[in-house]
């Protein structure tokens, strides 16, 4: 069985090792959730939620904008506006490229190319509160599992 070592870009020396089988299982479960319409991982929109605006520039070397690889459903208004790309195989979930990331993400700067028109989910998502991304935001400790859903790089 091929094994793949994944080093997270955090402050610890620990590493996790997952097999190709485990990676395939994670991907399969994610696909299943999407098929069931349950992959809008952050739940229903909540109008009482504030937009998340905070300085995370200094963290991108660790998080690598992994939030821009998460899958979620667009709102009807966003689909009708026609700016945000959605996945034709799974309307109307946001599109993802082969590398697992959003087509609107600039891969070099890790900045959103449609910032002013980014989806509501992107505006409200606060990674500081998401243990799937940060084990400890204040200390800058990333969750080692945060990247497991992404396709393996050659
Ligand atoms: S639309 Fe922008 S902020 Fe939202 S996932 Fe894509 S690149 Fe990230």
What does this entry look like structurally?
The chain has 154 residues and is α+β, with helices and mostly antiparallel strands. It has one domain (3-147). The chain is built from four helices and six strands. A hairpin with a 4-residue loop joins strand 3 (105-106) and strand 4. The site of iron/sulfur cluster (SF4) has 9 residues, from loops.
Average pLDDT taken over every residue = 79
Q: Please give the number of β-strands.
A: 6
Q: Give the low-confidence spans.
A: 1-12, 39-44
Helix content: 10-25%
Shape: globular
What is the CA-CA span between the terminal residues? Answer: 17 Å
Number of helices: 4
> What are the secondary-structure elements, in order, as H or E?
EEHHHEEHEE
Oligomeric state of the chains?
A: single chain
The figure for the number of domains is: 1
Largest beta-sheet details: 2 strands, antiparallel
* Ligand set: iron/sulfur cluster
Beta-strand residue percentage? 5-15%
> Order of strands across the widest beta sheet?
1-2
Question: What is the CA-atom radius of gyration, in angstroms?
Answer: 16 Å
Jot down its keywords:
alpha+beta; binds iron/sulfur cluster; two-stranded antiparallel sheet; 4 helices
Can you describe this structure in just a few lines?
This protein is of the alpha+beta class and 154 residues long.
